[in-house]
Specification:
Shape: globular
Low-confidence stretches: none
Number of domains: 2
Radius of gyration: 19 Å
CATH topology of the largest domain: Rossmann fold
CATH superfamily of the largest domain: Vaccinia Virus protein VP39
Largest sheet: 9 strands, mixed
Mean pLDDT: 97
Distance between the termini: 52 Å
Oligomer: single chain
Bound molecules: S-adenosylmethionine
Strand content: 15-25%
Number of helices: 11
């Protein structure tokens, strides 16, 4: 193995090797490369045929993905996209394709009440609003500066159906008891999927204690989300990290905590780098239905992600 990979924390490398014995080197290589830029259409400003026509007319080289619908890879540097009018007027949003997946599973519809519990900078809040401009969307973001960034992004993207709160998501259950049809919990996480060997800051603060702390935080956010969700409502949980303690482990805790009131909903992504959730980790067995969750393995244009969908079957 190239010694550059030994710059990553030893405990993380060990974890990755156990997790992905057959894809270990492939995953490691993605920490070294610069990922291709991807973006999606903003339906509030333009339709798909109109967007493609404009991009071609402005000489942008791009590849349209079959899934998710409305997503593209820039063939060339980000600068090429930034020069186009569609970028400058907010008709497109630069977002990693993996980060688009949770909202495709949330499947937002006009008329629904939707909560985005951990919202900034707003990639997914805007995605929800672009797909469902007549939905009633509420977004929480705890950090003041990040809340400002969220507000700015909503404005640039022409979104007007989102009410934001610069507050801890904990308050969602108090302010909106059993209110929402759908909730997205795109949780704060150890962001192992964003490790970049060209940027030591992305990995040098990682340690197992942080992973454990984050898993507590994720559970407390899900706890709040449960009480803000209507009976029959759906919740999507996602992270951009590999650690099972923040993924399957958190979902198992959630389903156990509200036993008989929550079920994991099967999800499928038509992509060849998506695998089932794991059911065994370091001597511990997760329930068999954790297989219904999904793990995205990173590649040249997708980051690592974890996605789970749940339904509140009774209040
Ligand atoms: C993974 S990021 C969300 C990314 C965002 N969903 C997007 O797609 O653009 C997690 C966000 O949750 C915020 N956060 C952390 N703890 C929170 C809490 N208790 N309540 C609300 N937001 C929180 C963080 O400040 C961070 O902005």
């Amino acid at each position: 193995m190239n010694e550059i990979f030994f710059k990553l924390p030893k405990a993380f490398l060990e974890k990755l090797q156990i997790l992905y014995p057959n894809h270990y080197q492939q995953v490691l290589n993605t920490f070294l490369i610069k990922k291709q830029t991807t973006f999606r259409v903003n339906y509030l400003k333009i339709d798909l045929p109109g967007l493609k026509k404009k991009m071609l007319a402005e000489g942008l080289r791009f590849h349209e993905l079959a899934f998710p619908k409305g997503a593209f890879i820039v063939k060339g540097p980000l600068k090429a996209l930034q020069r186009t009018s569609v970028y400058q007027n907010g008709s497109v949003y630069v977002q990693n394709v993996s980060s688009m997946l949770p909202v495709t599973m949330l499947s937002p519809q006009n008329g629904e009440k939707i909560l985005d519990l951990c919202a900034s900078p707003g990639a997914k809040t805007t995605q929800i609003a672009h797909l469902a401009p007549q939905a009633e969307i509420v977004a929480f973001e705890k950090e003041h500066v990040r809340h400002c960034k969220l507000e700015a992004n909503l404005k640039i993207q022409g979104v007007s159906n989102v009410k934001t709160f610069a507050q801890d998501g904990f308050w969602a259950r108090k302010k909106f008891p059993e209110y929402f049809d759908k909730i997205l919990v795109d949780a704060p996480c150890s962001a192992e999927g964003l490790f970049d060997l060209n940027n030591p800051r992305s990995y040098k603060y990682w340690n197992e204690r942080k992973v454990r702390e984050l898993s507590h935080k994720q559970k407390s956010l899900l706890h709040s989300a449960f009480f803000a969700l209507k009976e029959g409502g759906e919740l999507v949980y996602s992270t951009c990290t590999f650690s099972p303690e923040e993924n399957e482990g958190v979902i198992e805790w959630f389903v156990e905590k509200f036993k008989g009131q929550l079920e994991i909903v099967p999800i499928e992504f038509p992509l060849n780098n998506v695998f089932c959730g794991i059911t065994k980790w370091r001597g511990k067995h997760f329930a068999n239905n954790l297989k219904l969750t999904r793990r995205v393995i990173p590649n040249e244009f997708m980051e690592a992600f974890f996605v789970a969908k749940l339904k509140k079957t009774s209040a």
